[in-house]
Design brief:
Layout lengths: L39 E9 L2 E7 L5 H15 L3 E4 L2 E5 L3 H10 L3 E2 L1
Parallel strand pairs: 1-5
Antiparallel strand pairs: 1-2, 2-4, 3-4
């Protein structure tokens, strides 16, 4: 098991005999999508394995739109990143440059 991995153990029910239900929880699908001017994004800085990571979110976009936005951001910043659970995670401290890019695209911040 790698560093930073939390165990999530669930037990099944005893109704109608015993059965184990150890499957990973399904990520809830976001049912609504919002236009860029209705988003209220928040920045967070974290360290992962001693290296800085910039998180921005929460985005209410369809999966294809979110990945297109991520590709545009990564290309303009020259940085790696991913989109998980409605948040964009970028390598390094990118908050200032990322804010300018997202403002140009019409997103708003808290």
């Amino acid at each position: 098991m790698g560093r930073g991995v939390k165990l999530d153990i669930e037990f099944g029910s005893f109704d109608e005999g015993w059965k184990a239900d150890n499957r990973a929880k399904e990520a809830k699908e976001q049912s609504e999508t919002l236009p860029p001017h209705e988003h209220r994004l928040v920045f967070r800085r974290e360290k992962r394995r001693g290296k800085p990571v910039t998180l921005v979110g929460e985005f209410y976009l369809e999966k294809s739109d979110a990945h297109a936005l991520l590709a545009k951001i990564k290309k303009s910043l020259g940085s790696g990143g991913t989109f998980k659970r409605g948040w964009i995670q970028l390598q390094g401290e990118q908050a200032d440059a990322l804010r300018n890019i997202l403002k140009a695209l019409g997103y708003r911040f808290k």
